[in-house]
Design a protein that fits this description.
Chain A has 233 residues and is mostly helical. Chain A has 7 helices and no strands. Chains A, B: It is found in: Cytoplasm.
């Protein structure tokens, strides 16, 4: 009976890894769709999010069934509850990738991102994808050092976000309001995506060490800090 | 033993109601702080969010202890798991209220919101507060009809959000990029806050009816719809 139980726990972990891989791929492809103004790719990303939602629903049902049938305690209980939270983070990340793709679709055949911000957005998209790939690896390996690395990578995202705001606030901005709104929302999507990847990794740290890794500090509204720092720069 | 158990379940529900009341008050006060450029009130809201975070941590610990000690099944298990999710929604709503307050603080002594958008933002703030008050009432009464009402109220938020975007995209916009960025983020904060209130209510519907009330459709990125509709208008 315990064996079937641990198999089920493993399968929940496998689903989390699959979700992380799907949303990591989604943010990468959404970024490409936006930078290339590729409508087909954008629609592909938008549709693919359904798979992530299905995985989450399925994972939740299995986690709740596991709680009911096996009534785990101590560490095992914590693993199941934490998995539910991680799946919520990953589902939300999928939504954010979808938001990027929807923006690409909305602006098609135009490009939402002006050419002087192309490189910054590309970097944000790649970093977001890398963060999620590392989060998946952390789920598999339970490597606390790697998990803590994600926070440093997230600092890099904050830096890119600040660069974006510096462009926006620059007097020489010549792309108009619509593009400013698009870029503001895009910056927010990437930053939130990164936050969720970091959050997944932190939850693994909590499982392994029992310590919270200041979980509540995940989103201290870096975009406002960015505005602030951009303006005082 | 079952009595102590149900008392503990009730106390979890009480904490959820308290969290909803705190974050409802916070979004109202943050809106006032922003519209009046009231620094003291803004700082008050920013500090008060700690209480919400503490309540959530405490609620989670009690929910997990309850799962371990009492090993509930069926409906009771669903109540505990759903409470964990609602607390996450409420904690996040608190963050969003704090974001509004931080924007007020950042722009002080200036006003982040230009006077021709004052009424719209006031309405968004009031509606957000009302939605959260209803969500609290739904937690207490488990009134499914009231819960479904929240979705209609949320349509009103989408309408206000669209109005905001129409202003932004209007050729006569004369408030510059910085204000456009502020207003874009504000719109997103209110809209997400409303989504979380609706989500809390939907989770109660799920508990009462066992049906999902298309939970996954909660955030279909209305701000992009708004941009789209504003532009085609």
């Amino acid at each position: 009976m315990r064996d079937a139980y641990h198999e089920e726990l493993d399968s929940i972990s496998d689903s989390l890894v699959e979700m992380a891989r799907l949303v990591g791929s989604a943010i990468g492809r959404a970024t490409t769709a936006m930078l290339d103004s590729d409508l087909k790719l954008a629609e592909n990303v938008i549709e693919a999010d359904q798979k992530v939602d299905e995985l989450q629903h399925d994972l939740e049902a299995r986690a709740i069934a596991l709680l009911a049938r096996q009534q785990p305690v101590a560490t095992d209980l914590r693993i199941v509850v934490t998995s539910l939270r991680m799946s919520a983070d990953l589902e939300r990340s999928g939504d954010l990738a979808q938001h990027v793709a929807k923006l690409a679709r909305l602006r098609y055949p135009d490009r939402a991102v002006p050419s002087d911000l192309h490189a910054t957005i590309l970097e944000m998209g790649q970093l977001a994808q890398r963060l999620m790939a590392k989060a998946a690896e952390v789920i598999i390996t339970k490597d606390v050092d790697l998990a803590l690395q994600l926070e440093q990578d997230d600092d890099e995202m904050d830096l890119l976000h600040r660069t974006l705001f510096q462009h926006l606030m620059d007097d020489r901005w010549k792309h108009g309001i619509e593009t400013a709104v698009d870029v503001t929302l895009l910056g927010r999507y990437y930053e939130r995506f990164a936050d969720h990847a970091v959050s997944v990794a932190k939850r693994v740290v909590y499982l392994v060490t029992g310590e919270h890794a200041d979980e509540l500090q995940t989103d201290v509204q870096p975009e406002i800090q960015a505005v602030s720092e951009a303006e005082s720069a």
